[in-house]
Amino acid sequence: MSALLLLLALAAKPAGLVDIHTVVPRAVLDIDYATPHNFMHQAVYAHPRCLLRPEVAEALAKVEARLEPQGYRLKLWDCYRPLSVQRAMWKLVPVHGLVADPNHGGSHHNRGTAVDASLVDIDGHEVAMPSPHDDFTHAGRRDAPCKDPKAAAHRAILRAAMEAEGFTTIRMEWWHFDAPHAGRPPLLDEPL
Question: Which residues contact 47 (CB under 8 A, 6 or more apart)?
């Protein structure tokens, strides 16, 4: 692909969404759905991008501002997700609580109003967390006991910063955060 075509592909985005790096330039992206290193064992995104509704990106900028004085930055695993990808996820793991049913409202990711987030230190290095992304075991639950006190503390720091800006969590995933009014925008199915 020519450099111009690649730039055009990266510039194209679903209407109403912004690239997180235009609002939170220091956010670390680890978009595993753009690689085969995810629970689907295949790349389902053409590009490793984090697109969100503008108000969600602005709220994450405030989260980042809360984290930096504590020595942390945001790491984002997933942001906007096309509805067609949600359907593929549901086909593979049709378990309520683990994957949102695309036939009954989909995921807030499909609206650009949810993020899968973690922490890194101020220099962008990994810190201990309770589990990897998309860990469907008990360790992935929001309030699962942590054997590592540092991982428990990091999870609490992340959650406190996110909740201070109005984000809410779900019981089955410590990393998933829904923005306020997450269900209001329409579902989107435009590719990344």
Answer: 9, 10, 34, 192
pLDDT tens per residue, range 40-53: 999 999 999 999 99
pTM of the model: 0.91
Residue 153 three-state SS? helix
Strand blocks (E) in the chain: 18-19, 28-29, 51-52, 72-78, 114-121, 168-170, 173-178
Q: How far apart are CA 80 and CA 108, in angstroms?
A: 8
Domain-wise residue ranges, the chain: 20-178
CATH for the stretch 20-178: 3.30.1380.10
C-beta separation of 157 from 119 below 8 A: yes
